[in-house]
Structure prediction request, 567 residues.
Amino acid sequence: MIEHDVLVIGGGLAGMSAALHARQAGADVAMMSKVYPTRSHSAAAQGGINAALGIADSWEVHAYETVKGSDFLGDQDAIEILCSEGIQDIFTLEHHGVIFDRDDEGRIHMRGFGGTDKSRTCHVGDMTGQTILHVMYEQLLRMDVKSYDEWFVTTLLMDDGACCGAVAMEIVSGKLEVFKAKSVILCTGGCGRVYEPSTNGLIVTGDGLALAYRVGALIMDMEMVQYHPTTLPANGFLITEGARGEGAYLLNADGDRFMQNERYGATTLLEKASRDIVSRAETIEIQEGRGVDGCVLLDCRHIKDRILEAFHQIYELAQDYANVDITQEPLPIRPGMHYIMGGIKTDVDGRCYRQNGDGVEALPGLYAAGEVACVSAHGANRLGGNSLLDCVAFGRRAGAHAAEYAKSINPPNVSDQAVEIEEQKIIDIFARSTDLRAPALRLEMGEIMHQYTGVFRDEAGLLEAQRQIREVRNRYNEISVHDKGRVFNTDLLAVLELDYMLDCAETIIVSALARRESRGAHTRTDYPERDDENWIKHVVVYQTPDGPKIDYLPVTITQWQPEARKY
Ligand SMILES: Cc1cc2nc3c(=O)[nH]c(=O)nc-3n(C[C@H](O)[C@H](O)[C@H](O)COP(=O)(O)OP(=O)(O)OC[C@H]3O[C@@H](n4cnc5c(N)ncnc54)[C@H](O)[C@@H]3O)c2cc1C
Prediction:
């Protein structure tokens, strides 16, 4: 058995921020990741990280625009913290060594992004996530944080109603080990790959969401799935919003800048409107026959110089995967699954919650931060550039709180027996011999989710998705693996990950069925209007022996009352 005060599960930006601040608060901290930490999905973030550093900007304007972007579902206390404290977080990152791009006066350069006419997205070329991750990792090494690289968590451990550690598999040997901890922080990222295609890395499989769901944590706003307006049709790769932020146009087959159309409600910000609005507009253009092979066109020709200066990565992606030189011709793109606004319900200190009678209570010892969590700073639609900030700011707060909590409690009771239960699960998987493999079932699940729970939904489609996902769940127990060895068995990991993903799919569908209105990224064609009278509330789902149960929590409103949303 391995022991630490604080166990951070996840080595992306949220995990690194949590580990660093728990360490700074004096705790003995370990960080664990199923991939080498700097390969976490955070490394794929191209566009940048928001902070109202500009002279003509303020954290209050940033907060208001985040609330508006969230379609008034975000908790405004969390948003105020994100936007006000986030400013110092950027300076801290810079002092740690993040070489943000500069403007002509030597200040941090900020680019335009969606949902605002301000430039407030700090960046390092179009490799922001990767740069920040490497700098943070250096800081963790400097602070002697123990890093368990390529370890895969299979279950959380509970003692007397409190979370007290996890069982994890060392991938290189296949050995299972109990990790005992006074507090556990889940920073396992989103669940993008529950959809096919997705902009997310193949490792983004919702593990932490399912781990928390299984110990009774509340999972909130899972119906809020963000489709990003510009992804490549060939493989779902992302073309950063920064391109539209710099002035790129969206054109339909007739060559019209369709965002100018009144019906999309964005005649001022046009292509820079929020993602839910632009993705819906594109989908309508395509559905009504003004698309080009299931896509619309991103036109960067008039911003050629900026592309060559600050967007090397997308220039190359378009060249390599679409065979398009974006400085010479428009690029076919379409909306693609990108981000989950929902996640494990937390408060602003990262604490997780569970149902208790008619109310809710904190789930002692369990924390979450980053994309796996729902604090909720993004409500029904996240603004681009706000996720990295969420990871840094709420990772910091969760780390600090988890360290203090660990100081205040006695060591929990943990036995090694949990290893045997996990071992048995693996033996059972090895014992099966069928033709059914995890990747085939995973693809089926992803396509069902994309078809019925994408940009537009309705009750009939959601019920069909539920039926089909249940059927996939039934067949899950027939999956077998080719590789029955223990060393670096990715075949086995794929089976374990699919189990997590199916839990995520279930929570998305039941939450989308529950919300009978259209808000932000959740558009129900059978309930096309936003309904503030009945639906300014969060949908929460939790696991019971009879299946998922739905409940509701109030939205925190501090200073911005809901209003009509136009861009
Ligand atoms: C292509 C792309 C571009 C993006 N661009 C931007 C952008 O420009 N600006 C912005 O603000 N946001 C952007 N986002 C969103 C943002 O990058 C993510 O929301 C954020 O990085 C998530 O960070 P995280 O720390 O929560 O999770 P991740 O970075 O996904 O890290 C998850 C960690 O958990 C570990 N893990 C998962 N499961 C297990 C397990 N079972 N056992 C052990 N470890 C496990 C993984 O190994 C990994 O270390 C982008 C996202 C994508 C996909």
The domain at 418-529 is CATH 1.20.58.100 (Methane Monooxygenase Hydroxylase; Chain G, domain 1). The two ends are 55 Å apart (CA to CA). The first helix runs from residue 13 to 24.
